[in-house]
Amino acid sequence: MTGSTAQGYAFDNASDQAGDHHDALGQLLNAQTRQFIGDLIDLPGTSCLEIGAGAGSIAVWLADQGAEVLATDIAPQHIPARRGLTVRRHDVVTDDPPGRFDLVHARLVLGHLPRREQALRRMIGALKRGGVLLTGDYMVAPGAFVADAPDRRTGELLSRYLPAHVRALSAHGNDPEWPHRAPAAFAAAGLTDVSFRLHGGSWRGGGAGCRLLLAGIPQLRGALLEHGLTEDDLTATTAALADPRLLLNGFLFVQTSGRSAEPADS
User: Fold this and answer.
1) So where does this one cross the membrane (predicted)?
2) How far, in Å, CA of 70 to CA of 98, rounded?
């Protein structure tokens, strides 16, 4: 989906950049996602729902741990076939929960959805009693975006790029403040044992974080141009993000978890 007036997820699984996008996200986020899931639930023998599964890297890992996994996406063509893994097209905003699960996981989903509260209710509705919901979303890290650049002009360009990137995503319905509000929203929806973790760090030019931004530029191009950048800016930004001399203050990945309340007599 492209254009700043479009509402919905900004990155299309059918795009030419989808493979690079999924690969970069896996390198950036899989280790901490697996760690948090492992701390929350003993996976063998459990049932898991992976929402917005993308290329299926976490869904495959869950199945490898001995869970029965249903992996869903509005465009599930990149999710591989696997023993213990069922793939289904499903829209968490409009479709009823596809069952009840011990774990419901959604990464980089809620922050992008204009109707995120409705999606959150459906996620919670997919939990068994005592089941765990875990979501994760990006937010901009505090401080300067550019930690080091090969020259002043590049630093100034990337400093202008970041707010345009945020506004471009917001035009598609992304809420950059959602990670701040998620714990309170989980508690208000009746989840217990709510907690969150943050992970961040530097992104080097040519590394996974900058490759994630590079994969997004063609899909956000129209909105980026509408929000103050020029074609020359985008060309220069593409070159800068591939330059290993560049060091950015990468986005913070915020994971929020909660547990469905047990029956009173449990």
Assistant:
1) none
2) 9
Q: What is the pLDDT of residues 55-103, one digit of tens each?
A: 999 999 999 999 999 999 999 999 998 899 999 999 999 999 999 999 9
Write out the H or E segment, with its range, that includes residue 47: strand 47-51
- pTM score, two decimals? 0.93
- Quote the CA–CA distance of 193 and 191 in Å, as a whole number: 7
Number of domains, the chain: 1
Count the neighbouring beta carbons within 10 Å of the beta carbon of residue 18: 19
Cβ neighbors of 26 (< 8 A, separation 6 or more) are: 55, 57
CB burial class (10 A; 0-12, 13-18, 19+) of residue 99?
A: exposed
CA nearest 116: which of 45, 177, 50? 177
> How far is Cα 238 from Cα 155, in angstroms, rounded to an integer?
13
Domain extent for 197: 18-259
Domain CATH number, residue 65? 3.40.50.150
- Residue pair 212/28 in contact by the 8 Å Cβ criterion: yes
